[in-house]
Amino acid sequence: MATYEPKSSDSINFIKRYRERAHYDHETVNKILDAGLIAHVGFKAPKKKNRAESDAEDSDDQYPNVIPMTFSRIDQTLYLHGYISARILKALSGPIKGSASEEQAPKATVTVSIIDGLIVTLSAMNNSSNYRSVCCFGKARLVEDFDEKKRALAQLVNKQFMGGNKWDDSRAVYDSELKRTRVVAIDIETASAKIKSAGPVDDKEDIEDDEVVNKYWAGVVPIKTVYGKPEACSYNRVEVPDYVSNLENKFI
């Protein structure tokens, strides 16, 4: 089984707390990535040139940058897209091809989290959540190959429809649309998944205290992201396609 198993406790993907919840195999990581609709992408914005040192201290460049984005996965590569001048995509595009070594490629961290339930306990300090989460680390690159770019964009579109082929069920994409859209790939070098699926855990003294147990509710409140009934817009003239109608009541 392919795995991102960390080589040591110093590895960036090593989960230190609640290690029993850690998963490093590709299958588990990929399942969570495929289920998640939004990724949070961490990147380092390049410092602006010709900026006075005093101004740089207050610059946005000094803050960590994390942006929520739609994304897709093909094998062990993640794809992001947006307008050609978007700051995050420019920062992650890296040096011009052939102008620098691979070591100079920008690094990115991509996280995806899905909350599956609230764990309600007798004590406010013991409340928790059930969840599935992934942290991915890798070098980013601008997608310059035309065929790879189109495959990535098709996957980005279809992912939102749980694999329904919306890319082909649309008018043909204009060249001008492709030219003003930038696609960045992040080749996953390492990753980790963390999953919790459990019930309440309270202190023994609280569980054995009738006054506490008879006063406060404890249990689990499931949380699901559910697709609703499709609603046609004012200019729609066709029946709802199957890949859209089939989404109703499906959940992540």
UniProtKB/TrEMBL annotation:
Transmembrane segments: none annotated. InterPro entries: Pyridox_Oxase-rel, Split_barrel_FMN-bd. It comes from the Eukaryota. Pfam families: Pyridox_ox_2 (PF12900). This is Flavin-nucleotide-binding protein. It comes from Smittium culicis.
